[in-house]
Amino acid sequence: MSRPISLRTRLSREYAGIALLTALLLGAILALVLPPFFTQLEMTYLQDAGRSLNARLGDTRVLDRNDDAALQSEIEQFAQINRVSVSIFDETGAVLAEYSLDDVATTISDETLTQPLGPEGSPSLLHAEISGGPDAGAGLITSIAWAWAIAGSLAVVIAALFGYILAGRVSAPIAELTRASGEMAAGDLSVRATVKGDTEVQQLASAFNDMAEGIEDTFDSLRRFTGDAAHEIGTPLTALQADLELAQDASSETHVRELLERSLGHSERMGKLTRDLLALSRLESVGAVSEQQQVDLKALAEATVDSASSRAERAGINLTVQQSSEEVWTLGDPLALSRALGNLVDNALKFTPAGGKVNVSVDREGDNALLRVADNGLGIAEKDLPLIFERFHRSRSAAAIPGSGLGLAIVKAIVDVHRGEITVSSDESGTVFEIRLPVAQ
Question: How far is CA 2 from the centre of its chain?
Fold first, then answer.
């Protein structure tokens, strides 16, 4: 298989080819324009010589005297002065006098002019043929041809060098991109292409770097997710195995029942974790709500609070709902939105002590629907707020409270696929989660 021609070589050839075509076109134009131009100059010279000859012969009246010797002398003098060949003919075409410059060491023209002799406007029986004269383009055309050949050759060489240099500047960032992509393909996700300037290729390099950074972040997130998932699943699995082994050796039925109940709890925890992982994976892979419908957020909030009211009552927490006076609708998946709001209410109840308050409110804020879940519970440490929606993230204050660490990540994913926004604020007085969704028109 032949080696492909490099961009630098191709660009050099193309520039040289353009210069060569331009030089050939210029040469063709000169070949078409210059010969007629110089021919016209030569004819003009002969016309001037013819008028001058007619005037000279008229002034000397040598034609009226029928003196052949005097006519020959005049013709010779005139021909030598004007560097032309002259022949005088009578009405029958016989030669009366002639002089040729064939023996003169000069370049002469090939053009010939017939000049009537006699007063202007009167019938003429005699005429002269004037030929020769200086060849206006003889040496000049040769000089122009040499100049064109030299200039064209230089233009081709310069164009090829310019193309080679320019191709080097263009291909350098491409080579850098090739190097960076090769290293990335080999597994080094931290590699970046060097970006300088603001050309299209360098903009491509910048886009490549952004893509590489996104890929690296995705792989880092995947590695963390895999490690965290393995840990979260491994912990209850290890505990389950330990309890089952203890149950095998238990001496009393009561102890066996206790170990089995505890094992069932570990199994339920793994089941919930698996379901949450599958739900989060589906949400992130879909990226948008496939089937949208009108969702009444006031009714959704009412239903969520109703389903959690008995739990709140048992925990001694005052759970309330505050509704807007106007209708608040959005487009989306009602089950997913119900799960998102339910997770927030579940978290609020989980981290609010007995005697506390949890309030769910629905309102309209411009073109957005606003869902707010506020509590006066434990609060979230300031350093944990930027990480609160990360998978498996649990603050120190929540370490003693059961949970998978995926609830808020699921809420964030649901809000994202609905093109919404979720924010959180927290201090010692409690925590407030706010979801903003586009209002259905």
Answer: 31
SS3 of residue 402 by DSSP = coil
Residue 412 counted as domain residue: yes
Residues 6+ apart with CB under 8 A from 360: 301, 304, 305, 319, 320, 321, 322, 341, 345, 371, 372, 373
Is the model's pTM score more than 0.70? no
Please tell me whether residue 22 adopts helix, strand or coil conformation: helix
- In the chain, the number of structural domains is 3
Beta bridge partners of 424: 433
Q: Does 230 share its domain with 314?
A: no
CA distances from 361 to 316, 323, 341, 357 (A): 20, 6, 11, 13
Query: Beta strand 293-296 with 318-322: parallel, antiparallel or unpaired?
Result: unpaired
- The CATH number for 33's domain is 3.30.450
The DSSP secondary-structure symbol of 439 reads: B
Residue 206's domain is classified under what CATH number?
1.10.287.130
- Specify if 106 maps to a domain: yes
Q: Which of 138, 173, 190 is the last residue of a domain?
A: 138
**Chain segment 364-391, per-residue pLDDT in tens:** 988 899 999 999 988 888 888 888 877 7
- Written as six digits, the tokens of 35 are 């010969």
pLDDT digits (tens, 9 = 90+) for 292-328: 789 999 999 999 999 889 889 999 999 999 988 888 8
Beta-carbon contacts of residue 323 (< 8 Å; ≥ 6 apart): 298, 301, 302, 361, 362
